[in-house]
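Recap for those who missed Tuesday's class. We walked through two folding examples back to back. For each one, the amino acid string is listed first and its predicted structure tokens come directly after. Nothing is annotated here on purpose, so try labeling regions yourself before you check the end of the notes.
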Amino acid sequence: MASNPNPTPTEYIQHHLQNLVLGIHPENGLSFAHSSEEAAAMGFWALHIDSLMWAIGLGALFCWLFKKAADNVTSGVPGKFQNFIETIVEFVQGSVKETFHGKSELVGPLALTIFVWVFLMNLMDLVPVDLVPRLFAAIGIEYQKIVPTTDVNMTLGLSFSVFFLMIYYSIKIKGIGGFLGELTLQPFSSANPIIKVLFIPINLLLEGVGLIAKPISLGLRLFGNLYAGELIFILIALLPWYLQWTLSVPWAIFHILVIVLQAFIFMMLTIVYMSMAHEHH
């Protein structure tokens, strides 16, 4: 869009859905991609700089806000900011107590981090779609996506991080034998040892598919909902200005529910998976 002041609707949509990609191109070497074709040619190890930048920045904002609240905490009548932060912490703490049945000092902070961080990343979807890309285009940066959760690499990165924690604690709590037993000795079993052994490949296939499906569904659910919401904002931006205001405001109000709900669902499923990892079969 920076090089084409009058893009077609297709070019406009493609531009807004393109990340700022840094990678090693077969012909250009280490460089930024100038099209989706160049980004695809850079392969798996290319970095989405905009997604990483905004995600890290919003994570730092989360840490700063909560540290500021902790540094200024008072036992007397709390101010509005402290009261707001305490409300969030108590909400997450209540969700953990109701869902997590093991003992862990990690789950509470993990759930709080996931809820607030994912919420802040989702919240960027309410920024007007042309505002930030035009500001970056003015300084020569062609692409800029500011909603990290519309990038499937980010959402799958979050979900697989939760998955690896779940595997780690499953082995730590149950032992390697208990973990493998859950994968191979259910749902089909028998008192006959020979039949039990015959069921092992079937159980491993069924439980293995269910295990791998957890992080994939967790990441794709968040990505799909936010990507669809962002795409609708982009389509509305293609309409005449009077229709933009008529449609974008109601959609933004409705989308606030999606933003909060998706952060809550990601947090709750994380707590559930961690609870499953801490429970003996």
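Example two. Treat it independently of the first, because the proteins are unrelated.
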Amino acid sequence: MEIRDLLNYVLEYAEKKGAQYVEARFQDKYSADLVYKNGEINTNVGSRNGIGIRVLVNGSWAFVSTNKLSKENAEKIVSNAVLLARNSANSKSEKVQLAEVEIIDEKAISPRKISLLDISFEEKIKMIQEASKLKNDYSAVKSLQISYNEVIDKRIIFTNEGTRVEWEDMKPTVISYAVASKEGKIAGGYKSWSHTCGAEFFDLHPLDELVKSSCEKSSQLADATLPPAGIHNLLLDHQIVGVLAHEAIGHTAEADLVLAGSFTQGKLGKKVCDERITIVDAPFKESTNWMGVGWLPFDDEGVKGKEVKIITNGVMTGYMTNRELATKLGVEPTGNARAFTFADEPIVRMRNTYIESGDMSFEELLEAIGDGYYLKSLQNGQADSSGEFMFGALEAFKITKGEITDEIFQSPVLTGNAFEVLSNIIGVGNDFVISLGSGTCGKIQPAKVDAGGPHIAVKAMLAGGN
């Protein structure tokens, strides 16, 4: 049976069995991984497809999935789903209500100039092997790993309300990690890129540049010390700004975490940070030459993606929602329900989350800082639902009298409460970039996301160090 006919049959059969709402989601996902490490290459290429089905019966959900795409199997799992939902409804005190949405019939394909499949996997292996030879130019580099991943994800979502959406998404990701050693001191250098695009990715970001960057940084940082701890004037690059927007602010505005008691609960219409800060989560966001990796025209409930202004000029103005939680919060659905595979239920997730540009040039930001540190390149980080965070950067440069010096420090750690840090703004730059590196968020399920913003100057705490 053709897949669209099967999805329509699922809707009809589930209604016949007593479901009030039915959502049938097909996914065909191709993924290829290539890992080079110290001369050896490992590859893993494959695809997986199947359908996920959600039914709502008497205000109660049930979800089932299968990779057996037959009419007979569909009947079996749909019957089970309806039975499960009906039985659970009997003990449910609070019934699920779905917010109304626009019924749409649309198709979309992600931006690309050349398909990733137009370059053979053998050619990609050769490119990585050639780029890896640059390690030999750096005597201090003892280890090099280059990881490449490409995903082509096709989805079709039908609902019994009449929505019919289809899209195909293409995303390449590449990471280079080098480890250098000098006189017993060890340091890592890291560089990564991921965008929504095709094989033009390799022209936007030549692998030679990736490897050079990671090798140079690891060699340079092997001589560096930790920065001094304390409160300093800090200049944050696009990635650090992006992770603040995504990890420390964005998660607090996801509807499930709002209802669980995050910092932003009950804050709509209230001032939460400096008026120069506006934070947005959007289904599409372009940088200079590429589309953000969080490109998502529709979500996995078939809802058309909407821009969410989480904070507008320092005031809390929006939450990211799905249909169920939008009803509970009394807001509109925003198209933020996402599932990693057909076998996963959609949950509220971000897409492209960023701080909007201000009006200060890079030179003006440095002048406003005077003396301080310039933090570059995200390494790691964590945050909680109160906005408390700890983010590790790869490097920091000393700023003296408004000038970036050659004095470099390794592994600076920015810490504090995001809402407080963004209340201590020195200046917001006008040089927007969205690029979170490898672009993966790990909330329950993996998801490709992006984040960014302009350079921002703040007064904040560096933890640990000398």
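Answers for example two:
The chain has a mean pLDDT of 97.
The first helix runs from residue 3 to 17.
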